Structures are given as C-alpha cells and as structure tokens.
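seq as requested:
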Amino acid sequence: MDNNDAEETAESNLSLDDKMELNRQNEARMEEIERDIKQQPLTSDRVPIFELDQQYKDEAGSDSNFRAGVAVLKQHYRYIRMVRGDGNCYYRAFLYSLVERILEQQQNPQHSSLAKVEGERIVSWLKKESWDFVLANGYDEMTIEMFHDAIVELLERVTSGQTKLEDFHLEMNAENGTSDYCTWYMRVITAAHLKSDPGRFLPFIEQPGLDVQQFCRREVEPMGKECEMLQALALAEAFGVKVQIEYLDGHELVNGRIAQHTVGAENAAIHLTLLYRPGHYDILYPISG
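struct tokens:
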C-alpha cells in the first residue's frame, strides 16, 4: 500500500466530527498560506543574487542540488527580482522584464533607437493585431476591452517616455490594478495563440484527455493558474521576444551548468531572462547586463 492509499484509508475511518475538524484545519492552513502570499510584493526590488543562498540555507532539508545550482547562478547573474508566487508569476515577470528592458534601453544612447522601434512595434501590435487576433479566436469584445486598454495604455506611456522605472515599479505593485489587468490580457493572448494552431500545440499538452480549447479554458485563462512551458512559448512568440529561462529545479548539474531553455524568436531584438523554480518564476539580471 502506497502513502496515498494509506492516507485515504485512515481518513475513511474517521468519524464525521473528525472529518469536519480535519477539513477546518486544512482550510485554516490554506488561508494562512494565502495570507503569507499576499504579504509579498507583486514584484520586489532588485536584490543581490546571493540572497538565494540564504533562502536555501534556511530551508530545512534543502537539496544540495539546489545549492549547487545557486552557486552556478552567482557566476552569471548579479541580481534577482522576486515575483509574488500567486500563480500569475510568469506573466508578471514577463511584463515587468519587457517594460524594464525598454525603459533601460531608452536611457542608453547605443540602444535608444532600437528601444523606440521595438516599443512602437509592440504597441502597434497590441492595439490592432492582438485585438483582432483574440476576437477572431472567440473572445468577447465587451469582456476583454478594459484589459486590452490597460496594457496598451501602459506600453504607450512607456514607449513615449512618459513613465519612469520607479513609477512603473509602484504601478506594478498596486493591488487589483494594472498588473492584474495586463496579466489577464496576456493570458488571453497566450490562449488565442495556442488556439490558432491546435495541431501544433496539442501534442505538448501534458494533461490527458484535454484538447487545446479545454486546456486554455482550464489552465491558461483563469487567474492564478501556473504557467507551463507551453504557455511561456506561446506568449514569447506572440510578443516577438526571446525569453531565456534558467532552471533551478533540483536536478544535477550538467557540464557545470543548470538546465536552460529558450523560447520565442532566436533573432528577437528584446531578450528577457527569467529563473524557474518548481512552480515559480522570478527575473534575473546578468552580470554583463
């Protein structure tokens, strides 16, 4: 008998009062977890990468493979920006990193022209092409309009130089505000991208018995649903950017490195770098950046 069977057998032998008490305890634990998550900022300040050392040092029973992975990351990255672990972390990290790259390139004389071109390309695509695209893939105009307008208005302000990084950071940390609105529209874009080519994406859906429509309805569109590699690929392709993801997932190093995957266009002008840990994404900042 495996552990799950043993737990189910033990629970089936409980009295009604004991089951009610167990349910109450489980609900209390879930509420405590949710409170702890909500105490985290939506997106933190940049912090030195070595703070990951402290996390795994303080974590009881932390796997040595995680600590070895952190040691590798410290050789290549200077900072990390933590994102709230509420199931929306990939989308928040993607948007924050995208806007931050545009804002930083605007301040660099060598890259300011590129930032303007790429910013205007993304704004133009969001305003017209993405809108037509999601409507063509079955989304209701009245349902998504305010979310579409929020991300367009944000990127217009960024591209035109009306928003500074510190103001953007504050805006992205406002509860129930721009970050959430933009996240939901990015989920719609991701789902529409998957639905537009079901034959290509269906083989990569890991949940048995789901077609692309069902997968999007259950795993992509709802807020709080974690992002898998399939969604990461779809969002990067839709925006026309390249996303490099470092995997700190407890696996052994290979040739002295942790696993790394890249999604999106290889020749994209904007490159983003994120860190994956089981069920979670944060933003990384290379030493050379």
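The mean pLDDT is 89.
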